[in-house]
């Protein structure tokens, strides 16, 4: 107890209070400056660059104030630097995966295959990019899940950016019975696509006779472009096709309609 009291009496309380002030002031100062940098860069560059730049500024300024505070408390700067160097070397050996993710994050920064806010597809994951951090990228899926993907995995795998080109093409394949007139059906399909609010007038919609099929039927392809979610557009088109064909008594071959997966193959699927 006596040693503790003696130690407390020998402490330079003014320097200690000043050091704590530097840490607290440095934190809020770095926070304010980094926020200002983020807003400045967001207006001139991408949100991705703004976010990373603000974090570099925050950690750099806060580290500077922290080192100054430790110096005020009596820690020698040379000892701090040597300790930091040894810690960095030990950390690099202990966390090679983290270093790989960090380097991959730098490559993502310069290559820019996607940005914050883009919708991307990675393996069986599809969602909106919420954040691109130093070690990982966070994606929000349509069912409101947040998925963290290491940057190294993104660099090594194929990524599809669904937001690079706003206009996307989709197709619906219909197998029509041979008893119906092809030109009449084409006219009906063109009218359906013109009335669809999500289909773009340019590039124009195409209704093509793709091939003759068994039992004398024909296969028609509806090719259209849209800026909206293709699943929503397809739902609108198919609902209108079903209503129109039922009214006009138009039948499918074996009562089947081909609906290929969005932006993929045209494998026939049951209605």
Automatic annotation (TrEMBL):
Residues 99-163 form the Mechanosensitive ion channel MscS domain. Its main location: membrane. Pfam families: MS_channel_2nd. GO terms for molecular function: mechanosensitive monoatomic ion channel activity. It comes from the Bacteria. It is found in: Cell inner membrane; Cell membrane. The chain crosses the membrane at residues 13-30, 50-71. Keywords: Cell inner membrane, Cell membrane, Ion channel, Ion transport, Membrane, Transmembrane, Transmembrane helix, Transport. It is a multi-pass membrane protein. One of its GO terms (cellular component) is plasma membrane. Mechanosensitive channel that participates in the regulation of osmotic pressure changes within the cell, opening in response to stretch forces in the membrane lipid bilayer, without the need for other proteins. Contributes to normal resistance to hypoosmotic shock. Forms an ion channel of 1.0 nanosiemens conductance with a slight preference for anions. Homoheptamer. Belongs to the MscS (TC 1.A.23) family. This is Small-conductance mechanosensitive channel. The gene is mscS.
């Amino acid at each position: 107890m006596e040693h503790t009291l003696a130690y407390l009496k020998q402490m330079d309380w003014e320097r200690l209070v000043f050091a704590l002030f530097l840490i607290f002031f440095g934190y809020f100062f770095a926070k304010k400056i980094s926020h200002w940098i983020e807003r400045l860069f967001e207006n001139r560059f991408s949100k991705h660059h703004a976010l990373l730049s603000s974090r570099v500024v925050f950690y750099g300024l806060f580290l500077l104030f922290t080192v100054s505070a430790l110096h005020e408390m009596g820690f020698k700067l040379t000892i701090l630097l040597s300790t930091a160097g040894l810690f960095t070397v030990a950390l690099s050996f202990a966390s090679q995966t983290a270093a790989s993710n960090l380097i991959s994050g730098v490559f993502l920064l310069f290559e820019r295959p996607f940005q914050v806010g883009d919708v991307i597809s990675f393996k069986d994951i599809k969602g909106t990019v919420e954040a691109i951090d130093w070690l990982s990228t966070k994606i929000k899926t349509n069912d409101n899940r947040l998925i963290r993907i290491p940057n190294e995995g993104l660099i090594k795998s194929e990524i599809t950016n669904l937001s690079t080109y706003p206009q996307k093409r989709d197709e619906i394949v219909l197998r029509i019975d041979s008893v119906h007139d092809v030109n009449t059906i084409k006219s009906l399909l063109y009218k359906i696509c013109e009335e669809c609010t999500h289909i773009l007038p340019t590039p124009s919609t195409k209704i093509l006779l793709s091939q003759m099929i068994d039992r004398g039927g024909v296969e028609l392809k509806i090719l259209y472009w849209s800026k909206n979610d293709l699943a929503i557009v397809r739902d609108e088109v198919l609902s209108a096709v079903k209503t129109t064909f039922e009214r006009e008594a138009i039948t499918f071959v074996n009562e089947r309609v081909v609906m290929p997966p969005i932006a993929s193959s045209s494998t026939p699927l049951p209605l």
